[in-house]
Design goal:
Blueprint: E1 8-11, E2 18-19, H1 21-34, H2 42-48, H3 53-62, H4 73-90, E3 96-97, H5 101-110, E4 114-118, H6 126-132, E5 141-143, H7 156-165, E6 172-176, H8 179-188, E7 191-195, E8 212-214, H9 219-223
Parallel strand pairs: 1-4, 1-6, 4-5, 6-7, 7-8
Antiparallel strand pairs: 2-3
Helix pairs in contact: 1-2, 1-3, 1-4, 3-4
Pfam family, one: HAD_2
Keywords: Carbohydrate metabolism, Hydrolase, Magnesium, Metal-binding
Pathway: Organic acid metabolism; glycolate biosynthesis; glycolate from 2-phosphoglycolate: step 1/1
Length: 228
């Protein structure tokens, strides 16, 4: 099955294009320890990411995917400030693009598709990450987790893209690794392409019933009939 009418492709970032967990885990661990909380591991953080930095830090302080309702909100706010500082100081040196990401993005861009980035990551970190990996110029729009009032799975960002580029939902494809990405696509009425290797809280991404499931992002080129 191929998609014939796609004009605009929206990509998630963390867990889809970029394995950012090593840097996120270091910053999260530094944060909780600086506040006297127990250390957290990279393996734990890998299950906690995907819903934005506020939720990640709440989970790290709670040491659970469900944030402790008794967690002090002032401590949580201070932890978020410290996390941002630690994460920025780390310089994203441990993060790396997944296999075939650059070649796939360039092939899609060269074939005339409009590419956008829709991430729940705080906006201020995104430009440096994209520039560091040489892919910033491939995107016509970059939307962070705080660009709009609502983040994925809310379709607000995708609806904004549809309106800006004057395309129908049937002409847009959302590419991601988590149920938030697939739900955002469904809520916007657009197609979804899911990757199995990212961060989905330990759940198979196929459970979210995306239109396409792949182990490698390069499989997009076949689905979109892009010559390689």
């Amino acid at each position: 099955m191929a998609l014939q009418d796609i004009q605009l492709i929206a990509f998630d970032l963390d867990g889809t294009l970029l394995d950012s967990v090593p840097d996120l885990a270091v910053a999260a661990d530094q944060t909780v320890q600086s506040l006297g909380f127990p250390s957290v591991s990279e393996e734990e953080v890998r299950d906690w990411v995907g819903n934005g930095a506020d939720i990640l830090i709440g989970r790290a302080l709670s040491r659970n995917i469900v944030v402790d309702q008794a967690l002090d909100t002032d401590v949580w706010k201070e932890a978020r400030i410290r996390f941002d500082d630690f994460y920025q100081q780390g310089g994203h040196k441990l993060s790396h693009l997944y296999a075939n990401v650059t070649d796939t993005l360039k092939a899609l861009h060269g074939s005339g598709f409009k590419l956008a980035l829709v991430t729940n990551k705080p906006s201020k970190f995104v430009p440096d990450v994209l520039a560091q990996h040489g892919i910033a110029d491939l995107f016509v729009d970059v939307i962070g987790g705080d660009t709009f009032e609502q983040k994925k799975p809310d379709p607000m960002a995708l609806n904004w893209l549809l309106n800006k580029h004057q395309v129908t939902p049937e002409q847009m494809l959302m590419v991601g690794d988590s149920k938030n990405d697939i739900l955002a696509a469904k809520n916007a009425g657009c197609h979804s392409f899911a990757l199995t290797y990212g961060y989905n809280h330990g759940e198979p991404i196929s459970d979210s019933a995306p239109d396409f499931v792949a182990d490698n992002i390069a499989e997009m080129l076949d689905v979109l009939a892009v010559s390689q």
